[in-house]
Write a structure and sequence with these properties.
Blueprint: E1 7-8, E2 13-14, E3 19-20, E4 25-26, E5 31-32, E6 37-38, E7 43-44, E8 47-50, E9 55-56, E10 61-62, E11 77-80, E12 85-86, E13 91-92, E14 102-105, E15 110-111, E16 116-117, E17 122-123, E18 128-129, E19 134-135, E20 140-141, E21 146-147, E22 152-153, E23 158-159, E24 164-165, E25 170-171, E26 179-182, E27 189-193, H1 195-200, H2 205-220, H3 225-235, H4 240-251
Parallel strand pairs: 1-4, 2-5, 3-6, 4-7, 5-8, 6-9, 7-10, 8-11, 9-12, 10-13, 11-14, 12-15, 13-16, 14-17, 15-18, 16-19, 17-20, 18-21, 19-22, 20-23, 21-24, 22-25, 24-26
Antiparallel strand pairs: 26-27
Helix pairs in contact: 2-3
């Protein structure tokens, strides 16, 4: 299952049924779980832990040193879960000692060609990053978010669950869960609820209707943020989704896009 031209460094730990293509480089601190396939000329280096049944395509770069000038070779980790697809030329970097000491990726994510996950990022489950989508350092992307092609996320921003970011969008503030955001650098705005995405994920009509009401209060009422949240608490059923939306906004460090 390992091509003879692959360079597997001493110390690397590979499960017996891992498949390694020609020209692959595997560093000495790498661990790879069963069922994972690594395509031709991919590089997996650093302190990197990869779970089961992942597909890493040709020429992907996983675990290379962070693009942070403060990094001096310390033991910091990139931890990847199961069933992820990492396409060609995608780059994923480990954490830093001045950050969280690790970058984490959950399960079932798709990283399309040229997408980038920088140091100290945390990507949940079921996330899609389209071609050229880029995360700066310390970004958090919650479950089932979709990042369109060539969008760029500023450092320390958080992307809420089930949010959708349009292609080419420059994001500098937190994006609330369940919403859609598009725009260029000077005109990034929430454009509505991600209704199609929520329907596809199995959200009921009642839950979507309640989230629509919350969105109207949050964005269209022109209320101050604190007043909008109070009104959402007072007027709407406190479903798990509404609580998630309110909690996200209350915890925001960079402010939310509205």
């Amino acid at each position: 299952m390992i091509h003879p031209s692959a360079a597997i460094q001493q110390g690397a730990e590979l499960d017996n049924d891992v498949e390694i293509g020609p020209g692959v480089f595997i560093g000495p601190h790498v661990r790879i779980g069963k069922g994972t396939r690594v395509g031709p000329n991919a590089v997996i280096d650093g302190w990197t832990e990869i779970g089961q049944d992942n597909q890493i395509f040709h020429l992907a770069s996983v675990g290379g040193i962070p693009q942070d000038l403060k990094y001096k070779g310390e033991e910091t980790w990139l931890k990847i879960g199961d069933r992820n697809i990492i396409r060609e030329f995608a780059t994923l970097h480990p954490g830093t000692v001045t950050g969280d000491n690790e970058t984490t990726v959950g399960n079932g994510n798709l990283f399309m060609a040229y997408s980038h996950v920088a140091h100290d990022c945390h990507v949940g489950n079921g996330v899609v990053m389209a071609n050229g989508a880029t995360l700066a350092g310390h970004v958090r992307v919650d479950d089932f978010a979709i990042l369109g092609g060539l969008c760029a996320i500023h450092q320390f921003v958080r992307i809420g669950a089930h949010a959708m970011i349009g292609g080419g969008t420059m994001v500098g503030q937190d994006i609330p869960p369940f919403t859609i955001v598009t725009g260029d650098r000077k005109d990034v705005k929430l454009r509505g609820l991600n209704q199609v995405g929520l329907t596809r994920r199995g959200f009921s009509e009642d839950k979507i209707a309640t989230l629509k009401k919350a969105y109207r209060i949050l964005v269209l009422s022109k209320l101050r943020l604190v007043d909008a949240l109070d009104r959402i608490r007072q007027e709407l059923p406190q479903t798990e989704e509404v609580k998630q939306l309110v909690s996200f906004i209350e915890q925001s460090q960079r402010g939310i896009c509205r």
